[in-house]
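Folding Problem: From Residues to Backbone Shape
Fields: amino acid sequence; protein backbone structure tokens
RECORD BEGINS BELOW THIS LINE
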Amino acid sequence: MNIVSRIQFPQTDVASELYFKVDKSSTDFSASVGAASLWHRQVPLHQGSTISFNTYFNSFYESFYTKYTILSSLYYLLKLEGDFEVAVYRDEGSKKELLFSHKFEQCQLSDYVKVSLPELRQDQEAGRIYLEITCLSEQGLFSEGLLVTEQEKQRDVSFGIITCTFKKEFYVKKTVNAILQDSLLQDKQFKVFVVDNGKTLNGGDFESEKVKLISNRNVGGAGGFTKGLIEALQEGIYSHFLFMDDDIELDSEVIYKLFSLYEYAKQDFAISGSMLDLYKKHILYEAGAVYNKCFDNTGNLQYYPFEITSLKRNLDLRDPLVLNLLLSEDNIDYGSFWFFAFSKEVIESIGLPFPFFMKIDDIEFGLRVKQYLDNRIVAFPSFAVWHEPFYAKKPVWDVYYCTRNQLITNSIHDSLTYLRTIKILTKCIIYNLLRFDYNSAQMYVKGFNDYMEGANFIRSHDSEILHSKIFADSKSYKSQSIVTNLELNGEDYQVTKTGRLKKIFTLLTLNGHLLPRFLISDESAVIRQGFTEQDSVCKAFAKKRIIFVMEKNPQSYQNELDNKAGINILLSWIKSALKSRLKWSAINAEWKKATQELTSIKFWQDYLEPH
């Protein structure tokens, strides 16, 4: 008997509908939340009440398992107390089918109830399988559920789990402890490599032999993950590796399911864990993504350089109809490092991540993984973690790394022309100047200039020192400030419509930068962003300040017009763009040629420990 997965219980009631649903308000969910494992949890039921596992985490996604594993024969083992009717359903999206229905009487928690499943389907009729349990006695209890197979494993699997942290001690300790305290994982071969870029942890924080704490320089997420990966490779015992962010909320069942998935795998593939919104825990924020593509007006993906498009975004996972959408598999380009699993063979074939410090490192690495695995990067439903969404954080220095690193990535994996690149970046820079956001505009220029230095830029710069400089430069212009206690009534607020003539004047004058000062009024324009209806930046024409109100962000930001700063940044960009014209092709080729060297263990060992 081999356990493929368990019926999961919620760790808090906030996300309980992603685990199970109970009809009838008379029922109550009680759990020893502070216990060391999930096995002590119980769901009391009353006569006529039904507990349904028609949910995100407790559905069995048959179509994915039969495509990627050899699993064909499964059954449930349930611990129940009382009399019950147990039903098993398959939902394909277009129809719902009853697979099993049986009444079990006088069940005791000391014995498992076995619920057999028919042979799994491997055709287009494969779907999503789930349980529903109805209590027939006056009182009942559901305590445990296992999904089991008698099939032999294809292989033994061992995991090097790598997490990189920078001064987020609380989060990383919670994540590591969740893994260590899982009873089923005790028999699995794994080690967690905690790479501490901030040097704020100590050996006493992790006393288990299954955890290795590695003190490291602040070489960013890319450097931290790669440092841990090198350490894990040197132990020479792990068949697979998992990159996992430090600031996630993790249900350890996803780690257990990862083992069984690879133990029964038909062929090699990588797993891209989905991201659930940490602040709205029932929302699927992203299930894989594509690079250099975006959706057109008809909903089809089209090529568009520098665009990163999340797939299956902002779905409410409490809705079973939404769960059926997950059965449709997307051709994703990469898996983000909040949860990304791959085999040792991948590393042996494609090398290590690129030394990007941070941002786009997962994209570039994923594109190489995808090419090696012939597109087999899988956003497997229910393999997910909670993570802080992108709308909640976007420091200005991000712009530098995204610009520089996307240019490098396109040199390696694309054939972007000089003119198209300049056109895209010019739009970005002018847009930020129109917003009076001089720090962001400057970061675009800086990112482009450093890219044009060629691959020797990475070799010759200490990433830790460089980041300190980028961080300082991102605050060079003091024209941006945070506004608190801004009252803006969402119901009464009217989006300002901008005429064509005003749009033309806004662009020609760079939103007032080229106007004489006496034409600039000492007023503030309030602009909403991220809402269904958004204000145009033209609303700030000939005004001294812009106040940006962001959806789902408690803070507002005020940017103030600085004519000299805006004009100087624009002139510096024109100079950089013209200067780069003649050497564009050579720099592109240089970055591509240097990839093998910059992703080798030899390079990384010197890079991580500079002399």
